[in-house]
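Supplementary material to the annual report.
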Amino acid sequence: MYVCICNAIRETELRRAALLHAGDADAVYAALGKTPQCGQCLDDAATILIEEREKAAVGLLAPAS
Ligand code: FES
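Predicted assembly:
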């Protein structure tokens, strides 16, 4: 599924980028070589970035088995 139609950024691409690049949606888009156009995706993109980073943080806090 595309998160950003203007830049053809898929949700999977954005989730991967969330862990590789710091900053807000604009910063992550820039790291991907993209620039927001209409801006309609930015709220959803921000939510995805938060979700992925929270999941990663929870994983770091989990006890080693
Ligand atoms: S849908 Fe992402 S900038 Fe338009």
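The pocket of FE2/S2 (inorganic) cluster is lined by residues 4-7, 36-41 (CB under 6 Å).
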